Amino acid sequence: MPLDCRPEELLIAAIARLLRGCRNIAVGVSSPIPGSAALLARAESETPLRVELLESLDGNSFTRGSVELFDRAAQGRIDAFFLGGGQIDGQANINLVGTGDYPRTAVRWPGSFGSAYLYFLVPRVILFREEHSRRVLVPKVDFVSAPGVSAPEVYRRGGPCALITGKALFRFDRDRRRFRLESLHPGHDLADVLETTGFDFDHDAAPAATAGPDAATLEMIRGPVAREIAKAYPKFAARVFPRA
Amino acid sequence: MPLDCRPEELLIAAIARLLRGCRNIAVGVSSPIPGSAALLARAESETPLRVELLESLDGNSFTRGSVELFDRAAQGRIDAFFLGGGQIDGQANINLVGTGDYPRTAVRWPGSFGSAYLYFLVPRVILFREEHSRRVLVPKVDFVSAPGVSAPEVYRRGGPCALITGKALFRFDRDRRRFRLESLHPGHDLADVLETTGFDFDHDAAPAATAGPDAATLEMIRGPVAREIAKAYPKFAARVFPRA
Amino acid sequence: MTETCCFLSLDELAAQVPDGASLALPKDSAGAPMAAVRALVRRGAKDLHLINVPTSGLATDILIGAGAARLVETSGVSLGEFGGAPRFNAAVKAGAVTIRDATCPAIYAGLQAAEKGLPFMPLRGVIGSDVLAFRDDWKVIDNPFAEAAVDPLLLLPAIRPEVALFHARRADRLGNVWIGVQGELAIMAHAAERTLVTVEEVVEDDLMAREESAAGTLPAVYVSAVAEAPKGAWPLGFLDLYPADEAQLADYARLARSAEGFAAYLERGCAPAVGR
Amino acid sequence: MTETCCFLSLDELAAQVPDGASLALPKDSAGAPMAAVRALVRRGAKDLHLINVPTSGLATDILIGAGAARLVETSGVSLGEFGGAPRFNAAVKAGAVTIRDATCPAIYAGLQAAEKGLPFMPLRGVIGSDVLAFRDDWKVIDNPFAEAAVDPLLLLPAIRPEVALFHARRADRLGNVWIGVQGELAIMAHAAERTLVTVEEVVEDDLMAREESAAGTLPAVYVSAVAEAPKGAWPLGFLDLYPADEAQLADYARLARSAEGFAAYLERGCAPAVGR
Fold first, then answer.
1. What residue ranges do the domains of chain A occupy?
2. CA distances from A15 to C237, D176, D231 (A)
3. Chain A CB within 8 Å of residue D116 CB
4. pTM of the model
């Protein structure tokens, strides 16, 4: 019987499952849910697992400056990273720059950050965007900050492995260059996800439900994970884990 | 009237004159005389002059490792450097590798160190070798660790400006690609230098004498310079400046 | 060590950044020189070519809002949890600044090329992105060491800023600057022609004297001038010294939505006494 | 932080360097791991491909003399004031090792290419030298960013050592290693597949906990194993901790002129207890 948990806790548990087997996870700025998921994965891992929280002054082991993240990714010392997108399309292209004609985009977002590089170098990139709408999940992004797939001659050691939103979890099939719906979060149905997704994707007739955290996991999330993530994201922690 | 000074002191004074106008001088390993000359140039300079002694733990300002010397040279932050050579020829090519057919050279020297790079990047490279003989000063080096001159299309911001030995001081004319004898050290004559130099060079009929240090300079050498160089080269200092 | 660095007031330091200069600025979270940015606004700096290393926020937004920049080379401009960068976004939309979108490691690569006196540095990734498509100063070559038949590889031209400007924890009297684990500040300074630094405090110890402090020190040879500016990152937070002034930042984010609101913020916020 | 580094004895550490491996070693003056080198000789290591970063001396001479190396990539091997490196010189002359002569910044460039996951790094200079003439693994291209008609530019392929091995002042219990201003040790470790470190002492403090010590620390993520080896650089000197053992070095320089003398030195000098 599913436990009563907050949507953020469901996402944290679901993302942590995607991180199983990793040895080194890096989490970018403004990423409290991926950060919590990485900390949960570390807490549940039977083998050593490092988490680098870029947001946090003492939550990472970079001693040569932030260029070290990119070098480490190239060295194969980062197994998983998270990217978002103002727009994400069905080929897993992401747009962090803006909508409309570049450069005088109608809406301007911050910029591509390290995405155009890390998407190629980190084996397991998880796309995370809570908003699940046709505004975000588009047929074709207006600007490709980082492409989801590459021509065979392009050096590429990594790329998208999954997309998780507030409604559903998709796996990305790199060979077919398409997303496949893996599960629907409790409370959401296929018709709604089809309606609010701007790109085509594969799916079962009756998709599974995204599993929530079990009691032990939930205890872990609300205890050590909540306390640790609060150091980097105090406001997030106060809102989501009021009792931690 | 020339002061009575040691040959090392004459060399130190002569090299220091070659360093006038520099702002940043780097001195490689095993270079007590160039190091002393750089310290003398600093003591006599009216404008700020930095000296980086690579040999010394605290005699240089590199905090990112020894790669910083090479980066700094490329940035234009090193005005002068010293190179030697097992062989030096009339085009200012230097050989730090060995004699005979490479790689199984009959005599093997340590290797080219940074010469193949710094010779191109540092504006004022001073060649220093105490031994003045046909063994060292050859018509053509057996192995070019670093070439004295380059084709016009080759990026080159620096190169040889002078060669100083135990007998004489030569200037290198980059346009004519030849050395010109500038002065003979006291006690040496042109006939001897012609006899002991394996390459052709230009010279006046009666070359000048290399000026020794004046009283103030000698005091500087034997005082603050001697004390400072002793930190990096205690044995050299004890031998040459027994009273410092 | 020879003393070549000079100590200036904030306004004197700002006067060392000529109009039209290319100006490298670090991330908001790692040494954004806010007091110096206000001094640049006070002196009416203009036509700056901003190089964000590799991203920015408030520092770039204020300079753009004040009309001090003609071009921004960046991998991202954002106020973080306070939302988008309003004057940057408006200026991009209006075409009031030229934007050169990059990606973080490409900016580091360009600076490292300059640090090494190289014409370019290679970088993996990026191929197939619109970041590359809109950068006609970047080149793709076929990797000459490739084992495969073709192996396209991006080359980034050197970025050599005329001025690098950042805020640091401390400097000593010789101009050595403690940068700690913020290695990108060393890359900026190595790459730049001149480096200007504001610091929380000037200390009497020689930072180069002990190995432990030397390891995190940018030597004075790279430092053109230092200005003491306590709370010089305000209203941003700075390392573990002080937290962000959240009320100020929220205020900025709200006011800067309009040009008028931004002007009102500036009038209040860039007076010489503020933030000192 | 997760503990992934392991603590080994010197002989266990030496066993982590497989025969035939490429092995990066630092300069004699900046972390040459002499105790580990003796352990390698004791275990009879062979066919090593030595990469001097960027030069070496006693460490390389002993490994060559002991028949442990098949190839040496170096910018210089010398005993400094004790003269040439006798076993190196003899082996080169006899063709007993393959020599790849380089120049210091080329070795750094190759390691930095590996550090950045790049196929190569460019380098200025070197063109027209015989260093380049004898390196068929190096390439010269025409700089694609050149303003002039032609601009030949050297490209160095990445150097990715299987093992980096060096001696450092201290490690903590998590495997973080203090390297101070010896930044080339970080480059070596970043570039290498595995990094083995001997240290003067293991300390109880977490070196990453304070910014001052973190700035000079190689994080444990790069460190495969650590062995405690007090006086681990002996008979070389080490930083300001101890001076070179000049009598030993003079003895070595004299004995190692002949293969027999070297063998006698080894017998005395590589017994497990020596240098500990």
1. 2-240
2. 31, 29, 48
3. yes
4. 0.97
Query: What residues of B are in contact with residue C208 (Cβ under 8 Å)?
Result: 58, 61, 63
Length of chain A: 244
Q: What is the secondary structure of D88-115 as a DSSP string? A: HHHHHHHT-SEEEE--HHHHHHHHHHHH
Other CB atoms within 10 Å distance of the CB of residue C131: 29
- The angle that helices D183-191 and B67-74 make with each other, rounded to 10 degrees, is 100
Axis-axis angle for helices C104-115, A67-74 (nearest 10): 100
Interface probe with C: pick from B64, B120, B154, most Cβ of C within 10 Å = B64
Say yes or no to pLDDT of A15 above 50: yes
**C272 CA: distance to closest CA in chain A (Å):** 30
By the 8 A CB rule, do A63 and D215 touch? yes
Q: Check: CATH 3.40.50.880 for D6-103+159-256?
A: no
Give me the residue label for tokens 């079962």: A204
Q: Which of A65, A113, A115 sits opposite C181 (nearest CB)?
A: A65
Burial class (CB within 10 angstroms; exposed 0-12, middle 13-18, buried 19+) of A206: exposed
Torsion over CA: C81, C85, C89, C92 (sign): negative
Supply the pLDDT for residue B56. Answer: 81
Distance from CA of D235 to the nearest CA of C (A): 23
Question: Quick check: C135 and C107 in contact, CB under 8 A?
Answer: no
pLDDT reading at A98 higher than 90: yes
Which of A71, A78, A121 to mutate to probe the D interface, most D CBs <10 Å?
Answer: A71
Residue D204 is which amino acid? E
For D155, the 3-state DSSP assignment is strand
Q: List phi, psi (to 5°) of B13.
A: -65, -40
Helix axes D104-115, B67-74, angle to 10 degrees: 100
Residues D61-93 pLDDT 10s: 999 999 999 999 999 999 998 999 999 999 999
β-sheet bridge partners, residue C69: C48
Nearest CA to B28 out of D251, C220, D72, D78 is that of D78
| Cα–Cα distances in angstroms (integers) from residue A32 to residues D17, D31, D67, in the given order | 41, 41, 55
CATH code for the domain defined by B2-240: 3.40.1080.10
**Three-class SS state of C178:** strand
If you average pLDDT over residues C114-128, what whole number do you get?
98
Average pLDDT along chain B: 95
Q: Which residue intervals of B92-241 are DSSP H helices?
A: 115-121, 190-196, 215-220, 226-232, 234-240
| C-alpha span between D11 and D8 (Å, rounded) | 8
Which positions in chain A touch C91 (Cβ < 8 Å)? Answer: none
Residue A244's pLDDT band (boundaries 50, 70, 90)?
A: low
> B93 is written with which tokens?
């090519």
Preceding omega of A7 cis (within 30 degrees of 0): no
Query: CA D23, CA C141: separation in Å to the nearest integer?
Result: 32
Tell me the C-alpha distance between C7 and C10, whole Å. Answer: 10
Task: Name which of C24, D172, D214, C211 is nearest A65 in CA terms.
Answer: D214
The answer to whether C119 and D145 have CB atoms below 8 angstroms apart is: yes
Residue extents of the structural domains in chain D: 6-103+159-256, 120-157
Neighboring chain A residues of C85 at a CB cutoff of 8 Å: 110
Nearest Cα to A84, choosing from A127, A136, A140?
A127
φ/ψ of B165, rounded to 5, equals -120, -175
ipTM: 0.97
Strands B80-83 and B124-128: parallel
Q: Give ∠ CA A194-A195-A198 in degrees, rounded to 5.
A: 80
pLDDT value at C3 more than 90: no
Q: Which of B178, B177, B181 is nearest to B167 (CA)?
A: B181
